[in-house]
């Protein structure tokens, strides 16, 4: 879990794991040698993140047994989840296809390439599109060009137009964007996705 010295000093027996799709409370146990392990709550975390052999998880200890968690697949790429954050699942009644991305520093770069989850892209035939229009919370349209990554694993990316969308909507690291696809737009050359933004807590 890293930071062995600071963890040894902690007295809490319950950990809070925070990933891009929510938070989990997990019981922490120590063996006779002082090694820490996750118990109750860990199997649910594994299921919710679709962990399998070859995946790996990075824990950043922020104090008091609170961890920021990043999940990577066997290709060392951070996993993307085509559903809303855990704490919004019962609050959001949308039935349209959608996926969620948590903003990170790389998304702020002027030439950023933003991945659309492969499962989402394939199931909605977005690979046949050369562009998509994002509609922000103020209903302003933002044309985005799409491109297929030709090296490595399959990736469909938004690579032109994203920076203007990011800056105009004052996005920052930790903000959560839910991209909701308008199914009717799939009949046209350019797909339409409404973007709902949840601001990161300060």
From TrEMBL:
This is TF-B3 domain-containing protein. Coiled coil: none annotated. SUPFAM superfamilies: DNA-binding pseudobarrel domain. Keywords: DNA-binding, Nucleus, Repeat, Transcription, Transcription regulation. It comes from the Eukaryota. Pfam families: B3. It comes from Erythranthe guttata. CDD domains: B3_DNA. Residues 1-75, 99-201 form the TF-B3 domain. One of its GO terms (molecular function) is DNA binding. InterPro entries: B3_DNA-bd, DNA-bd_pseudobarrel_sf, REM_fam. One of its GO terms (cellular component) is nucleus.
